[in-house]
Specification:
Largest sheet: none
Number of helices: 2
Structural class: mainly alpha
Radius of gyration: 28 Å
Number of strands: 0
Strand content: under 5%
Helix content: over 70%
């Protein structure tokens, strides 16, 4: 009985280690995904900023060539900036939701680990 209890305890402890390692690997993968998503969003925001500058400057040049100026030209430039900011807000919101989802998945992996650990009985020694 002592021998059987010792093996049962060994199995429990080994399972515990394996469950923790599996959880850690899954969380590392999610962390890499979070970094990739953040970098992709930063790239999209950079592209958006460049496109906004190009659009703003194209309007200024076109207005200058046409001999136009004043408040209407400023209003057009402000609309381009507003569009850029709305785009950045959407990108930020999408990234935040993605990161929230990743955090939820991490919590799920921790629960999965605990269920796996608790699925094996402990060995009882006297």
């Amino acid at each position: 009985a002592e021998n059987k209890a010792a093996w049962t305890e060994y199995d429990f402890l080994q399972n515990r280690v394996n469950a923790a390692v599996a959880r850690d690997l899954k969380i590392q993968s999610l962390n890499r995904r979070a970094i990739q998503e953040a970098e992709a969003t930063a790239g999209q925001k950079f592209d958006l900023a460049i496109a906004s500058m190009e659009a703003r400057e194209a309007r200024v040049v076109a207005a200058g060539e046409a001999g136009l100026g004043g408040k209407s030209i400023d209003a057009q430039a402000n609309m381009v900036t507003a569009r850029q900011l709305r785009g950045e807000t959407v990108l930020n919101d999408n990234l935040r939701m993605m990161l929230d989802q990743i955090e939820d998945e991490k919590e799920g992996f921790s629960s999965e680990m605990m269920n796996r650990i608790n699925s094996l009985p402990r060995g009882h020694r006297r």
